[in-house]
Structures
1.
Amino acid sequence: MAKDLLAIHPLPLDRIRRVFTLYLSMWLGGPDDYQQQFGHPRLRARHLPFTVTPALKRQWMYCMRKAMMQTVHDIQLAEQLLRALDQLAEHMINKDDP
């Protein structure tokens, strides 16, 4: 379901998981460890070197939805977070599907 998305991330995924955890913590109002280590997120600029299509966004959201449903027990909160993540992911799209 997320084969194309996984293919563009270097293995093992430990580093991307760590960086994403730092980013999400900051995004949710926690400490700004991400910004201290990597600077301002500038997510769109950071993703411009990569082709981000609507199909990749759907794969990413599939992964986010799966993770959210496994870790957030308040369904309303999970849905609210997923809506916000969907808007964020939509902003990352820089190319149409082939």
2.
Amino acid sequence: MTPEEAAHEVRRIEITTRHLVRDIVAGEYSSAFRGRGVEFAEVREYQPGDDVRTIDWNVTARLGAAYVKRYLEERELTVLFVVDLSASGRFGTRRRTKTGLAAEVTAVLALAAVRNNDRIGAVFFTDRVEYHLQPAKGRRHVLRLINDLLRFEPAGTGTDLGAALAEIEPVLRRRAVIFVLSDFLASGHETILARLARRHDVVGLQLVDPRERKLPAAGIVTLWDAESGQWRRIDTDSPEVRHYFAGRAAAFDQHLERSLRDRNVDLLRLETGRPYAEPLLTFFRRRERRLGR
């Protein structure tokens, strides 16, 4: 994408998503994260009506009475976008590729964050860390992030989410919100993901395409794995082949849901061929209700 094309696309995204950004900021964004706006101050003895989720179990066990954590207001939040630019993201059979969807969703969330006066940073990764933008405030900073994401040409093709998470772990000294935008076709990141989720709010945004879950009956088809470079021919007219393919996709989704849930990571699945506005708003509202904000 040329600089002129990228500038045009940034402007298009900013214009077409302004209502969604406004709606997120107006009602859901600032209250949707348990770390938003608070910093640990002290513990005090539990009183009727206190939220049981704020109980400090270590202090409670040591003193023999229930104690809860108290917090002070913070003025800002750090929001990190960890964006998968591996070769599988170039796949898309409907309105956009998975990478294109990642760019639009990142833009929406980053524009919402900057309206809330938060600090925004990013890491782009493939089988290596390709790009690291330090957190900062301001609309110009966010527009730079969107522009860079649209124009970026990665050197790698594979996927190493663990390396990206390891890049940000040592620099996050305060609680942050981490959005991971990926198809999650990777492994080896589970331990560090769980460690980050204990200190920060981590949200997985799984980007999928409908043809990754359901094959059309199109005869003999040659498939190419863009990350490994392997080719394979399959008979898509075979009901058994299509059933096996769909079953593998469903099993992968179920495994990912369990894996992230076990690590206290929220998951939102977004599809290239469907609008993402309502799923995003629904996600924020559901999370806000769950946290009792």
3.
Amino acid sequence: MTSLIDCAGKLLDLSQAHIMGVLNVTPDSFSDGGRYSVVDAAVARARELVAQGASIVDVGGESTRPGATAVAVDAELERVIPVIEAVVAELPVIISVDTSKPAVMSAAVAAGAGMINDVRALQATDALAVAARCAVPVCLMHMLGDPRSMQQQPHYDDVVNDVKDFLKRRIAACEQAGIPRQRLLIDPGFGFGKSLTHNLSLMRHLHEFSALGLPMLVGVSRKSMIGAVLDVPVEGRLYGSIALATLAAWQGAAIIRAHDVAATRHALQMCAAVRGAP
């Protein structure tokens, strides 16, 4: 597995865990919908994320929370492209675009994004070809169904093996489309078509995904699995998020997607210090 990935000219060394800061420029995201939908507010938030320790800022213009409705291509472009351009002009941070739409992928990379983060793992029509042409790293995430229906009684024969098999197939499809392995990352998709039991099992066995030989991105920040276990609302999920981020990093996650970057950075630094101890 390569530890160095090229994100449109910005190199990221994945021999240590990095934080991907969440920047939702949507009116309806589950945690911070509407807070950063104006460009100036989004840039200010990106500045905060970088100052707190984010190596990557993940810009998303379509909510993928359970029950979310689809967003038209033009609307998503209007949300994310001005933000990406403004952040790139001010900050040297790597920008990831959180999208499944090929047109948004292409425009975002042209605007300066250095990574594609796709919850549908390039399954949309033409997504593979467009991602190959963009020539930036792509994160392939597992999702059962779509955001509108994914939490309606999700079923697996064996959630760990089923998710792993799906990712294997998508990796093969990417390679066949001309996307080399050194530009691929994987994400088991916590909360995307999974029950609480499924999510907990995935976390318990997360180390098994290292067998796929690719860097792993994990996004568990503020998710409903934390609320279900701890019986707390979204704004009370910091401690649970930190616990899961640490468990993920301990099991080999290369990138942790987080809302609370400063606290997550401290947790990952402690995790790295213990892992490096004699």
4.
Amino acid sequence: MPRIGIFDSGVGGLTVQRAILDALPGLDTVYLGDTARVPYGTKSPEVVTQYSIRNGRVLVAHGVEMLVVACNTASAVALPAMREAFDVPVLGVVEPGARAAARATRTGKVGILGTQSTVASGAYQRALAALIPGVEVTARACPLFVPLAEEGWTDPGDEVVRLVARRYLAPVRAAGVDVVVLGCTHYPLLAAAIAAELPGVTLVDSAAAIAAEVRERFPGAASGGPASHAFLVTDTPDRFLGVAPRFLGRPVESARHVDV
């Protein structure tokens, strides 16, 4: 069976892996969480690119046939350098997410939720502008969504979750968007809370979009198994193991520390 490498700055990329495994249960995977350097969303593009290439080298050394950059921040700033550095295909989550949003919108008004770096990079804005002439994009950084997701505070009925979501999403709602891209791997865990503040708005999960593109590359992995999955982290494997099942939707029994 083919093997792909997936990396993120931490545990959030497991939502991307989850979508890929749901679509391709016969696919072997190696996941790398750069937990020693999380978060990427507040770092410079140059530093994020350096980290991304180092992560890619570790995964390529494991014999992967494709690299999936699950981190939206790294996808936004590091893909050109990674595609130049590696011979295997490199997929990011920005372009598939933008294509899914372009298919879903009826009004040409699209919201983007992401980290500060993802929003500031303009990557989603550029991708959407290339797909939808005259698109109106409202982009909003929502940094507190990440710790809420990692702490398991995702219930839309929770007062803290509701107030944070309302504060972040009020400008997006006022802009009249009909589609919102969840441009951070943590945000799907808060989809119900986000939807509650944006009634009638379609939420686009970049994880599902990239899973569809991986399936096009490896259609034979849509059936079969059992597949093997390795988990690598750059710091605190025990903390990773405590949080990972919430994001992956299945048990994670072991994670190995690696130096990057």
